[in-house]
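for ur thesis appendix - SAM-dependent methyltransferase. copy paste whatever u need, i formatted it the way the template wanted (i think)
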Amino acid sequence: MHSNDLAQLPLRQRIKARAERLFGAWGVFAKGFVKHPVMVGSIVPSSDRTIRKMLAPVPWQTVELFVEYGPGVGTFCRPVLDKLPRNATYIAIDTNPDFIRYLRKTIPDSRFIAVHGSAADVEAIIAQHGFAHADYVLSGLPLSTLPGNVADEIAQATHRALRPGGAFLVYQFNTFTNQLIRPYFDRVDRGYEFWNVLPCHLFWGWKADSETTAKRSHH
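the 3d part is after this line
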């Protein structure tokens, strides 16, 4: 059932679902931040302007699999689902079981799959759902504060998981991502959104398509 099919639910369920979306999200998000501040990164969800700018380069009509790391309470989920083709799939991966339960409960869309797991395991996760590669991967994980080599493992796994020509979309409060993903991605575009709490750095890491790779191999 798609997100706009909420209207088909009984009135009591519709009211409850809308109330949870309106008020419950803040409570769940704040709880997640208090329990796992290193993994959540911010107590305030991204602004609408950040969402629009981050997703703007995606050619939605070509997307078959969209993946998100650290979806939280779904700040990006509904805007993505509004743009995603009807036959596409959206896999959201989070290590916080509270967020996963909340997403499963509040997003009744057959295209949407909420997975309790680690972004570093993205290849195995998408394979479990019948995909060889993702078209685009979005991340709001606070990469600079992740322990050990986890951030680098995520960057490498994401590059392998993406199809040629796909992209890693990252929004952060610092510029650490630039140095993290440049060794793995053919091109990194950068942006900035002031109207966000806090102001946000945006990155789009593009994986070379096969044609570009072939041309470079002959030089």
